[in-house]
Specification:
The protein has eight helices and five strands. The protein has helices at 8-13, 69-72, 84-91, 100-118, 133-144, 158-169, 173-176, 186-213; strands spanning 17-25, 34-43, 49-56, 124-127, 155-157. The longest helix is centred in the C-terminal third of the chain and has 28 residues, at 186-213.
Length: 214
């Protein structure tokens, strides 16, 4: 029997390409109604961004998904928390919106386009916690019977990365770095999340390289 030295897991671990997905929703639950989605794809080691995408999603077809008063009224209705610009992206019916199914197909197309262009096996998808962005979008994929363009094991958590940066490095670029754009605009949030994640990973890399030289 010939044993292969090929180790797919090793390739995945060394792959620094991530898609940061940010959703603006009507609830915190997995079945949340999705208002808008932003995605930034880039190299988390270098900070290079390969593509950015933003989609407003239509309400039609989301009748079974949840919008609760705690989120829609208390959060989106509070101008102290959410700007008029961000609210317009959610509630202005004159803005173009796409069906929920089309959102999933476009996300897949966006991700596959970068994977093919860079000639990599796959990429990782990062969202705010395993219980929010990733869980919500995967619930929609399952509901509509569409296969995501990334392996289940490649779901990663921004919150865990931020916590590790605070715990082990004593840094918090999520709050220490200047936010550029409109808060709670899905694309601006995704871009900010990609940038502060890159800052944390780069600091980890510097710390490890410094330790190796001692």
């Amino acid at each position: 029997m010939i044993l292969s030295n090929h180790n797919p897991l090793k390739e995945i671990q060394r792959n620094p390409i991530v898609a940061v997905i940010d959703l603006e929703t009507g609830s915190l639950r997995n079945k949340a109604h999705i208002f808008t989605a932003g995605m930034v794809i880039g190299n988390i080691l270098t900070g290079e961004i390969f593509s950015e995408h933003y989609y407003r999603v239509a309400s039609d077809g989301q009748e079974g998904r949840i919008s609760d008063s705690e989120t829609v009224t208390d959060f989106w209705g509070d101008l102290n928390k959410v700007s008029r610009e961000a609210r317009r992206e959610i509630f202005d019916l004159e803005l173009d919106r796409i069906p929920l199914e089309e959102l999933l197909l476009r996300l897949n197309e966006d991700i596959c386009g970068v994977v093919e262009k860079l000639d990599i096996k796959n990429l990782h998808v990062m969202g705010n916690g395993s219980e929010f962005d990733n869980a919500i979008i995967l619930d929609v994929y399952k509901e509509l019977g569409i296969k995501p363009a990334w392996p289940h094991g490649n779901n990663q958590s921004l919150r865990t990365l931020v916590w590790m940066g605070r715990l082990l490095l004593g840094i918090d670029p999520k709050y220490q770095n200047e936010f550029i754009g409109i808060r709670h605009h899905a694309l601006d949030d995704a871009r900010d999340e990609f940038n502060y994640s890159t800052a944390i990973v780069q600091k980890f890399k510097e710390a490890l390289e410094g330790a190796g030289k001692e």
